[in-house]
Design goal:
The protein is of the alpha+beta class. The protein has a single domain (about 1-225), classed as Double-stranded beta-helix (4-Layer Sandwich), CATH 3.60.160.10. It is about 15% helix and about 50% strand. The strands form 2 sheets. Strands 3, 5, 6, 8, 9, 10, 11, 12, 13, 14, 15 and 16 form a 12-stranded antiparallel beta sheet that branches. Strands 1-2-7-4 form a 4-stranded antiparallel beta sheet, with no helix packed on it. Strand 1 (about 1-5) and strand 2 form a beta hairpin.
């Protein structure tokens, strides 16, 4: 399997080239195009989960704001499947080797090899106050996977400590820990400084951030939209 990201950063497209017999698992609604001899199978689980495990994984993903079902695209003679997110932004390919997993913000996953497991993980109060919700996605296994961002994406190698605005966090390796707090300057700076909450990451590993904040963008564009009647 080969994955190439085209038209980045604003209108990114993931072009997945499959050999004969290879498969890729995609988020429902993310497929843009595919070769005609590629078969689609829709189910709740990922490879190796079994029926019960697949149903439980699907239910947990629904709690995290993801789709209950997954679409598996399998090439009989080889071919190409193209995926894209619903909004403007970039995508990133990460090749997992099984030694460490990823923690992903809900809604960011696009597609992955069948050997990659996408499951919901309890984030606790830290992720709630960081604006990521109580449930995050845990990505484990081996093989390539693709996630998308709002705006451009930047990968950062952390060795020690790093601070980032909570609305710009997309993904991080599970070797990193984080705490959530204000950017500093006391309660006045927190209330009126415009920075909100930040996450302080510690440890060694990679962090991916997005150049735009979806929540802040929504606050900006909301008043500009026409009122709906009724």
């Amino acid at each position: 399997m080969n994955i190439e990201i085209q038209h980045r950063p604003a209108y990114s497209l993931a072009v997945v080239s499959l050999e004969a017999g290879e498969s890729v698992v995609g988020e429902p609604g993310s497929m843009i195009s595919m070769d005609g001899d590629i078969a689609i199978d829709t189910s709740a689980g990922m490879a190796g989960k079994g029926i019960i495990g697949g149903l439980l994984s699907g239910l947990k993903r629904m709690v995290a704001g993801e789709s209950f079902l997954r679409n598996t695209f399998t090439a009989s003679r080889g071919g190409t499947v193209c995926f894209a997110p619903t909004h403007v932004g970039d995508m990133e390919v990460v090749n997992l080797d099984g030694s460490r997993g990823l923690v992903l913000q809900a809604g960011a996953w696009v597609c992955a090899a069948p050997s990659v497991s996408i499951d919901a993980s309890w984030g606790g109060a830290r992720s709630f106050f960081a604006g990521e919700g109580l449930i995050l996605l845990k990505v484990t296994g081996e093989g390539p996977m693709v996630f998308h961002t709002f705006g451009g994406v930047k990968a950062i190698e952390i060795d020690g400590e790093f601070v980032v605005d909570s609305g710009h966090i997309v993904a991080f390796e599970d070797t990193l820990s984080f705490t959530v707090g204000s950017v500093g300057g006391g309660i006045f700076a927190f209330l009126f400084g415009g920075e909100g909450l930040v996450a302080t990451f510690k440890g060694r590993g990679r962090l991916w951030i997005q150049t735009r904040n979806a929540t802040q963008f929504g606050k900006w564009i909301g008043p500009l939209l026409p009122m709906r009647e009724g």
